[in-house]
């Protein structure tokens, strides 16, 4: 495999891991955001339930039409919040179902109370009967209100737990994928060092050895990439340089031999003269 191909593969792998990590972290951040939004909605429900109970107590004390209208307004606002809220876990769904059930029951009891207050009574027995009925309805209404508060508070507690769980999951994913990226980058750097830097260092050292006169030195690189081709060319160059040096040495020796022979002939000629 060519070095270019290896580097391209490393780049594609790094980009793929980065994309996967980004998608996972985006999903985790969205989970945290949705959990916070649900928690905020549940908090508004708990707040409206408390305000609804305050208006109920005020109405039971003073029986004012203004307080009745305010209770009706708070009830409609709470109905809208309960209709819009969507939860995931079975515990949250169960608590939300109970709140909705208590909420509807409270409306029926409150309307019964209003109708009873508007009816005309002409004798003592009717008044006593109404007071007994009112006491019973108020007791039921109080029970439904308390139950609604309890379940809405439980829903808020579960929602807060989901927020904490989502935040912990996001933090864990950040740590895990940061470690994965670090390991992958380390592997890529080691691979690049092994594929490119190491062989090039060997070639550099071999050049120094050749320059010092050791023409028989060979570079031990057998990879099937550009570095391997360069090492093979380097070894070929070394062989040719060695052959050239040997041929040059032979020619020099021959010339030296001829010079010695010529000098010897000249010396003999002078002696004979």
Mean pLDDT: 79
Gyration radius from CA atoms, angstroms: 47 Å
- One letter per element, helices H and strands E, the order comes to HHHHH
Number of helices: 5
- Unreliable residue stretches: none
| Residues in β-strands, percent | under 5%
Q: What's the shape? A: rod-shaped
The total of beta strands comes to 0
* Global structural class: mainly alpha
From the N-terminal CA to the C-terminal CA, the straight-line distance is 77 Å
Q: What kind of sheet is the major sheet?
A: none
Question: Would you give an account of this structure?
Answer:
With 273 residues, this protein is mostly helical. The chain is 89% helix and 0% strand. The chain has five helices and no strands. Helix 2 runs antiparallel to helix 3 and helix 4 packs parallel to helix 5. The longest helix is centred in the middle third of the chain and has 88 residues. The protein starts with a helix and ends with a helix.
């Amino acid at each position: 495999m060519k070095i270019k191909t290896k580097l391209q593969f490393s780049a594609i792998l790094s980009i793929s891991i980065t994309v996967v990590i980004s998608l996972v972290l985006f999903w985790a951040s969205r989970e945290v955001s949705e959990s916070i939004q649900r928690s905020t909605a549940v908090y508004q429900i708990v707040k409206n339930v408390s305000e609804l109970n305050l208006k109920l107590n005020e109405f039971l004390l003073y029986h004012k039409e203004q307080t009745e209208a305010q209770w009706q307004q708070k009830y409609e606002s709470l109905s809208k919040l309960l209709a819009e809220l969507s939860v995931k876990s079975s515990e949250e769904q169960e608590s939300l179902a109970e709140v909705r059930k208590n909420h509807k029951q409270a409306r029926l009891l409150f309307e019964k109370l209003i109708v009873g207050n508007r009816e005309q009574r002409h004798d003592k027995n009717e008044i006593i009967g109404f007071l007994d009925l009112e006491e019973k309805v108020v007791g039921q209404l109080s029970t439904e209100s308390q139950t609604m508060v309890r379940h809405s508070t439980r829903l808020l507690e579960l929602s807060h737990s989901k927020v904490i769980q989502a935040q912990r999951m996001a933090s864990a994913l950040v740590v895990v994928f940061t470690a994965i990226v670090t390991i992958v980058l380390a592997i890529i750097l080691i691979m690049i060092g092994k594929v490119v830097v190491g062989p090039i260092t060997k070639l550099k050292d071999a050049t120094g050895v050749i320059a010092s006169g050791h023409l028989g030195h060979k570079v031990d690189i057998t990879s099937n990439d550009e570095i391997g081709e360069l090492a093979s060319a380097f070894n070929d160059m070394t062989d040719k340089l060695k052959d050239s040096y040997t041929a040059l040495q032979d020619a020099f020796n021959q010339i030296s031999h001829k010079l010695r022979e010529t000098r010897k002939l000249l010396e003999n000629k002078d002696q004979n003269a």
